User: Fold these one by one.
Assistant:
Number 1:
Amino acid sequence: MFPAITLYSESMDSGQATYNYRYDANLAEEIELKWQARWEQAGTYHAPNPSGSLADSTGRIDLPKLFIMDMFPYPSGTGLHVGHPLGFIGTDVYARFKRMSGYNVLHTMGYDAFGLPAEEHARQTGQHPRENTDANINNMRKQLKRLGLGHDPRRSISTTDLDYYKWTQWIFLQLFNSWYDSELNQARPIKELETKLENGSITLKENISWAACSDQRKKEIINSFRLAYLAEAPVNWCPALGTVLANEEVTVDGRSERGNHPVYRRPLKQWMMRITAYADRLLEDLESLDWTEAIKSMQRNWIGKSEGAVINFTAEDSTVPVFTTRPDTIFGATYLVLAPEHPLVDSLYQTDWPEDVDSRWTGGYKNPPSAIEAYRIQSNQKSDLDRQENKDKTGVFLGSYAKVPVTGEEIPIFISDYVLMGYGTGAIMAVPGQDERDWEFAEVFGLDIIRTVQPPTDWDGKAYVGDGPAINSDFLDGLPIKEAKRAIIQWLEDNSGGRRQTSYKLRDWLFSRQRYWGEPFPIVYDKDGLPNAVPEEVLPVELPELIDWAPRSLDENSDPEPPLGRAEGWTTTTLDLGNGPQEYIRELNTMPQWAGSCWYYLRYLDPLNSEEFVSEDIEKYWMSGETGGVDLYVGGVEHAVLHLLYSRFWHKVLFDLGYVTTPEPFQRLFNQGYIQAAAYQDERGMYVEAVDVSKVEKKFFYQEKEVQRSFGKMGKSLKNSVTPDEMYEEYGADTLRLYEMFMGPLDQDRPWETKSVIGSQRLIQRVWRNLVNEETGELTITDSEPEESLNRLLHQTIDSVSNDMNNLRFNTAIARITELNNEITKLESPTPRSIAEPLVLLLAPLTPHIAEELWEKLGYENSVVYARFPTPDKKLLIEDEAEIPIQVNGKVKSKIKIDSNATDETLREVALADEKIKSLLALNEPKKVIVVSGKLVNIVI
RNA sequence: GCCCGGGUGGCGGAAUCGGCAGACGCGGGGGAUUCAAAAUCCCUUUCCCUUCGGGGAGUGCGGGUUCAAGUCCCGCCCCGGGCACCA
């Protein structure tokens, strides 16, 4: 009836050992919970600040500092799977290693909790986003705590905390109250602009006189300079989500990244961030950062700087500026192309076609106006996806001609959707000889093609984009591209035909969202409809409680409708902005999710400060460094552009205004890989639960039917999630940590294999068994000294593990520890204390719980967290006897053991005297003998 | 098309400086222990051939440099990611 008990007593009777203290999942859990509770109680991971409420008397503040950070997560409702914490474990191991190496380490974790998913969830469940968000955060905190991550819990923030978003709003106000002084090349307070306008040291464009402007006009002009400004701009309107989206949030095929809904372009008045003012600095400062080349090149690509010229073509009574990176090819310009929506089109077209018009140019319409109208409709309806897939050149002739500045020649003007309004000037000079797209268009429309760069003699292609001497180009003839560019730009500038110009792909950052669950803007509108900053004392502008917070799902033609507009009693407020209490209308949009993640690393430093977003000396302490900023920032590659670019931008603004001391926020960036897992599809292509799939021979079966295996990111949609909880249940947190670190290098994607986790548990189990009696739980170590060979191995292990940990190569660090432990396992006698103690210390960063437990058993009262990581005895790193391979013609044929200090000459002699080598050489004299000191001998015959 | 990564046993990976390819782990095979099994411990495990001494091949493919190449050079192929009519 009670088989478990019966069996137990049976084994007792038969005198079998009972391993009550074997390291298994139960014991692991007992140990892990015990230490997690102790750490929390003792505040083990509290990192002291130099001042303020987080200062302490541990003395750690005098150590060199290290700021280690993870990209903070969105607290999702579905909980974690084993793929999520990979990076968190990596930073934790590194942070622990550095703590043990004598650093004051700041490591904590926050939550990026505003954003769409909480609202989507709220819409589905009727639960307020805040409740749902808080519940998710609590759940995630619990899950992460169970992993034994050494975070300073006092510094954990959520972007949705009132105390936090108050300062997000405050930073917004700094942007609102600043402008970019291009002479100083930095952001300055807007007051300085006013002074400069007053005293005339800055003059306005188009000869507008500042003095003659009305107060209202002055305000408008000032507003147009702000780093946060309102602009009527074409936006990405997503009716299904009920919000506009940033360019970065729209996929290449014109759909929302979240939800894959259609997105439409339409003009709307929106908050913008003048990130373009920082384009050059964002580009140049990449050089100094310790980031991967891949991320840097993605940022460079996104900023998209290209140098060239704007050339003015004249047509009718207008000037058509075109941007080109190849002004040297101007003599080959045979037509102009404008984007279909280019504003100049309306003043350039003729009412009738010229008499001899080419029928290909008219689109079959009877006159230019009708052709243009039809073409605009056609290209408007084309989705971006169509544009991409179907690159056939289309367009229509405007009926008019433009004059090429340098030749005076008349060339036809077209509109075509291969020219984009959003880049350069929205107009190009087409040079088919040197541009593949122009060549295609010229072929379709029968336009002239003039080569202006001599292609190589064996060139049989079409447009030639390589270098070569200029031809057919008058005074440029014979010059290589670079010099020809310089010469023509000089000519253009001398003859008012154009000027040097740099163009960027980077656009200003659209900052408004028509959403509830985001930071409200600290902005109110006066009766003239102009925006005003809410005074700092009044911050935070708190989100109103709303019953109906869901965005309306709307159709293509409707206007975005911010949910905050429904907050009765909130949409207006009475403030005194210097001219007595007045009623103002609040800004109803909210900030995008990126806002909160732009500066959270600064709040970690000084989370309880109610006077400032971060205090000066604390910021200086934690952010200083060789080039400054967070010392190690680990996260996924998916934030390569958006978050990392926005954050760098805000940081530079704060730097310009003197609030932070470093020009960059993140000195070293490391991208962790993803954990993938096998996923299985049945014959309909549906994913089936991966846990229920079994392998027979080399095939996979689910409910007796064969299924196909593939690999993908772990998650709900592929039905291949494995949760940390399952791993705790079966192995414990230390094993999970160890396995995740052992699977491969941190920056690499790797497939999860639950069956392999056992290997990591075995390591801990063997270490435990080497130090502790499994029946009694007593220490089994001895105070006698180890064999010299074991001692050598220990010190070699310490040396390589230290190196590996410094370089985040935890997988090889674990391999070295395993080797050491395998040797200990082979000992006939108990483990010497002088080996056991460093072994525990080597493991402590990786498996902190078991290390604490063993450290305590070894008789230490203080936590292993602050024990010193062992350092190798240099003398023991050098073997006195080395095994030297001897090669014949580059292949290993023999090995000799020899004093490691042996001279090259001795090495050579001993190698040649080796029996095996002698027999291989027979009577031949070796042609050559190469001796690599202390490493190898190669004999050439 | 352009720009980044990457390709090593059955699997994850190691070899980061041009110097013993396959560390370490999973899986497999064999043995010890056990009534038996699990667990544990030991041996073995790149492939092919072998008279069991050993011999040969081998890091995506084809060339090259070198005494020596996974590593460097040239030309390809494949996989993953990013960008893409950006003038």
Number 2:
Amino acid sequence: MKKKQIKLKDIADALHLSVPTVSRALRDSYEISQETKKAVVELARAMNYKPNLLAVGLRKNKTFKVGVIIPSLWYYYNSAAVTGMEEVLEEHGYSVMICQSKESYNREVIQVRNLIDSRVDGILVSISQSTIKYDHFIDAQEEGIPVIFFDRAPSYEGASKVVIDNKLAAKSAIHHLFKKGRKRIVFIAGPEKLRISKTRYEGYLEAYKEHGLEPDENLIINCNFTKNMGYRATKSFLRKNIDIDGLFAINDRTCIGAVAAVQEAGLKIPQDVAVVGFNDEPTVQYLTPPLTTIRQPAYEIGMEAAKLFLKERNADTGQFTPTKLILETELIVRESS
Amino acid sequence: MKKKQIKLKDIADALHLSVPTVSRALRDSYEISQETKKAVVELARAMNYKPNLLAVGLRKNKTFKVGVIIPSLWYYYNSAAVTGMEEVLEEHGYSVMICQSKESYNREVIQVRNLIDSRVDGILVSISQSTIKYDHFIDAQEEGIPVIFFDRAPSYEGASKVVIDNKLAAKSAIHHLFKKGRKRIVFIAGPEKLRISKTRYEGYLEAYKEHGLEPDENLIINCNFTKNMGYRATKSFLRKNIDIDGLFAINDRTCIGAVAAVQEAGLKIPQDVAVVGFNDEPTVQYLTPPLTTIRQPAYEIGMEAAKLFLKERNADTGQFTPTKLILETELIVRESS
DNA sequence: TATATTTGCGTAATCGATTACGTAAATAGA
DNA sequence: TCTATTTACGTAATCGATTACGCAAATATA
């Protein structure tokens, strides 16, 4: 039943050659005669020889594997980014190891550690909500493994990043709502610690300033990244009977929950409350009403992050300067605003 | 800058011991004295020693990595299944390598090949739409790598599977619609070749038979697994002006597209057309109207598949009998029906 | 006291590939 | 014709760990 994996020795024995000769023949070394190469290559094909990647990796200290750490596969833009990376990396012979941090700093640390021990050639990360220390990434870099941040990047400046301009994106959403005549815009912010959350909040504030209005702190809701939290937080907010006419949520999931809460309260969207989400997840155009939202080029972010890795994989770790790429977002206007 | 990875030899040299002694001490072998063990373990901690997993894997012929192949991360139930697997496998020290076949047979073959070459300890697969040959899986099994199918399993009987009873699930949906007084139920089937598509169709037919009604072949729409295809296929179907009062779609995404088409045609849901989807994706409860659908225990499917792997990883390949697990689905009734 | 056994460790071989180095035979140059 | 250089391999070392085996010293048994 159990067929043995063919190894170089099997080919060598069959052709009365030595193992290194076979190895060199397969890699088309100049030291090997044409006839020998031909014989080896043909037999290797016939026997369906495939190199043991563990042995190759051990010897060459290169595995052609890249680790990707994302908060969760549930997030549409995370999956999209991963898919973009694969697109680029596969072409260069790399395969991708995906890890979910599930927004846990501890898991993230363990995963980075495991990727290092597995000797991946690079690590691409979108950090978890709870990540505040970056030692694990520095460890990886010190082992000579390039680290690239994408989407959620830390303040740490020692590594390249691919991000969007969160402040600008938030501003564009708020200005859009101003244009629709809204002035009292609820902002459903994400988890307070998260950087993108803060930055989008800054955008919110700046937009108010630019428009000559005073922002009202009572309009800010902090909650987690889930529909349910969005629903509950909005529900309890609405009970306070604060006057509102617009709503901007840090992401579409939270927004969906918020919309449900608003509608349950008898308010009409967009007539009473105009709503803008973030991410343009696939289903939001089919909601009632279809959601206005900010499209983030997740797939492209993934591709760019992968390209940065390809650039940095051979860089001399001594004097390399991290790159920071900022990709553009797009406001998709639909009927909710 | 580049700190060297600590290896056994570094510890051995520092303590004037041999490499095997250090190795044994770390694995708590009975052949090593207590004092030596203590010294080794402490120094290993202090130096932050981590074994090179490539070397360990090569020597032990065991990598503690499991390959998972899914059609796409976009599919909610695929991500859910993967998450369930990780839950189980992590506890046993395995990490997971995720590959997306993107519904391509060729990609699937390459990925299986790559997983074999990477010497994973097992492969868990949900096959692609276009997979009709199973030689690549048989190859893996012949190399001694257990293969477990989940969700989408082939007819091939030589491996264990974890699936749902697609026929029964479809029947329950149709009977539910009958109970609501519907008789002319459109079935939006998936790709014709796909097994789950056929099986759900059988369920559709059987339900009709059990209810004493004659199914109408004109009510069947074959199309791909995407919103857009669901939308377009339904749109062109509705142009034929065939009389309908119910709709059952092979999955929620297709269903969302179909619902959009139905609503655009001026038909009311559920009054004119009662609708049932499949999968209970997270957003469908927020559609207008919220979608009735069949919940598939994707997370549990993943967990069970992982458990089967754990059971089979040490089995004697000679006389092992494949297991077939069938998990229960649940009809979630909402306002669309 | 003499032999048997255990304890604790080292040496050598191994996993499957790659690379440094050596060398006989074939060819080239003087 | 004799030396210099290629050509085309083979041998040995290496990557970092694990395992088989051997062996001296310490302890136990007779």
